[in-house]
Amino acid sequence: MKSAEVEAKLEKLAKTVEKLEAEIQLIRDIEAIKKLQRAYGYYLEHWQEEELIGLWSHSPDVACEINDFGLFKGWEGPQGVRSCFSFVDHYPAYGGLTKAPGEYLHILIPLAGIVDVNPDGVNAKGRWYGYFLGAMPREGQTRSLIGCGIWENEYVKEDSIWKFKKLFWSEIISSPLEEGWVKKPSILNPPHRYSPPMGPNTKFAPYPSGYIFPYHYKNPVTGK
Questions:
Q1: pTM of the model as a whole
Q2: Is 195 inside a domain boundary?
Q3: What is the pLDDT of residues 71-96, one digit of tens each?
Q4: What b/e sequence results for 95-114 when a residue is b if at least 16 CB atoms lie within 10 Å of its CB, and e otherwise?
Q5: 133: domain range?
Q6: Which CATH number fits the domain that encloses residue 38?
Q7: How does the average pLDDT of the chain come out, rounded?
Q8: Distances 44 to 2, 21, 89, 172, 195 between C-alpha atoms, Å
Q9: Total of domains in the chain
Q10: How many CB atoms lie within 10 A of CB 202?
């Protein structure tokens, strides 16, 4: 075999190895983001505040919006993301407790995730369904709830670790278990203590509004 042919084959092999390494890294990134999203659900089950806070980037452009609570922006301050996950601020119905009592339950299961990592390898977006069962304070008493919503989230990779950058949750139903979502589609959360204003480009419109939470991705077949 001539040296030129050998060089051509080696160059082709090097490009193949480079391509495979990039594909392996993409798979690792997607799996890490999936684990991050699942961990959020487990920590939320009993409102483990420090664990929830630990999943986040501390960058100044972090943001969190959950239904009609308002848009929490930045990290610190009463309307920062850190405050959004303070149990005492989130559930004043429990009279100033700093952690969830035994009767509190929020089982939140992420499903049907679509994760897209940017070509830069440090930013990503994900869309998920979240199904939940809960026992939470509603209408002056602890209610058994069943519900569903959609996340459209952004993630950032810092020091090789994926973290939440922006979390947006749009609830579809949050219904008393005994009544169901047709009879009573939604019982909203009690208001957050600080209630920041809603963002200009977001919308919360649960069932039966027909509202479609905007997709972060294009159609995977048509590209539109």
A1: 0.93
A2: no
A3: 999 998 888 999 989 898 888 888 88
A4: eeeeebeeebbbebebeebe
A5: 3-183
A6: 3.10.450.50
A7: 91
A8: 64, 35, 15, 18, 20
A9: 1
A10: 15
